[in-house]
Input
Amino acid sequence: MRLLFIIIFLLNLQVSSGQNINRINVIVSPIVKSKDNSSSSNIGSIAVTNLKFYLTKISLTKSQKTVWQEENSYHLIDISNPKSLDFVLNLSKNIYFDAIHFLFGTDSLINISGVMGGDLDPIKGMYWAWNSGYINFKLEGEKNTIPFEFHLGGYTPPFQTVQKIKLKTNSKNNLIIELDIIKFLKQLDLTTQKKIMSPGKEAQQLAIMLSTLFSIRE
Amino acid sequence: MYFPYTPSLVKFEHPKYWPKPVYNFEKNPLTEEGISLGRKLFYDPILSRDSSVSCSSCHLSYTAFTHVDHSLSHGINDSIGTRNSPSLINLAWHSSFMWDGAVNHLDVQALAPITHPEEMGEDLNNVIRKLKTTQGYSNMFYKAFKDSSITGEHLLKAISQFELTLISCNSKYDSVMRKTSTFTLQEENGYQIYQKNCISCHSEPLFTNNQFEKNGLPTDPLLNDFGRYNITKDPTDSLKFKVPTLRNIEFSFPYMHDGRFKNLSQVFKHYTSITSNSILLSSNEKVDLTAFLLTLTDKHFLFNKKHSFPRELFYPTNKE
Output
């Protein structure tokens, strides 16, 4: 009987965890529309007009050991630019992993290193001119006709906004990373908190909230 | 452009006995082409919304890259800002920029005046759009960065390259330090007075310690400018401002972050009358100190043709 359990256990390990992978298609899929559209809901109507944020320093681990790191890993996710929502991770060899890690935002070194190109170019509108540093997350829109504007940034301690994210996942070719913006907006009282444009405690609190709303769509 | 082009590297020269510059040249090595492009951009009002204001409007080469006729800088539409424009001298040794250190790297400093509604009032995307349709710029960008596409990164790095060449190290004071000249008796007395009273903030050889200090200036009630505190929100930073250089002080009036002092006499009056840490200066000592400060004037810097308006880049002759 015990042998049977052991065999079933081992089979499960093999079947549900995945295969060796050398290329991953990543799709970032922020949830910006409320699933509940009924008029009886008391959530109200939410319209997101602008959502941009940085996903950087992507790496893969197996049993907490790093097995792969992306070079020049800086992705600006912008819902108005569909091309930015999917990208490919080319692993140089076959890798088996059980978790994907990344930074939600930009690390402090990037914020003091001056100007960079590509997704980090200030032309992307994610850089503060009058208080040097990146805007890690921008969310704009309306809830029940109340406009909201959340620009979260800041890298100096104790109010750093960058967050480390770890998502457990099976080792597979296609990963869909979700960020539940609707849940985030539902958690806020927009009558008291609808505009953040500078670094500080509030920006950090919201960044921490958002960091809990990432998930892998299975 | 389909043939490969290699820009020519330029060595960053400075006196050997000076401290090491803090700017990371590896990320933006100086080249003839980069400096030339940066210089043209510095003098080009196309960076402003209505093409009326260029960097040189507030940073004029003959007056130590500041301007002398306004206490508070002007921008487009005759708007007035809240601060006096600092002189641009020896920037490779600075790790913070603006009177309150709002900018932490030279390469991103230009973003601030370009996008401020009361300075140049422009959007970076618009600047790039305008440059793309202006004759000559794509070619200059290609030569400087092997890329004709014109990005925000390259625009800002080019401006930095030009600004980094603004080095002042050939004043009379410098020749005295190199023992190729000597102070007059007045200047020597003035040097002693400076060393006794001013050196902790305006330290040699850059004549600034690059820190934020409080010097007893009362707040202007109309401006309510608390300096470094605005950025750090640390109460101990209230009323602290970046120490400016004394180099070329003869030409960088008016003085202080809001240009409230027209001349050195008013500056001395302030320092001799503040309630704490005031300094004592007799009339003779004030004259001697002034004589010393005038030895910080560097005519090589002020009249260097490589720093001034590049006529040949804006109005090329048929040969080019």
Notes: The CA atoms of residues 59 and 69 of chain A lie 4 Å apart. Chain A touches chain B at residues 111-117, 120-123, 125, 127, 129-133, 156, 200 (CB under 8 Å). Chain A has one domain: 21-216.
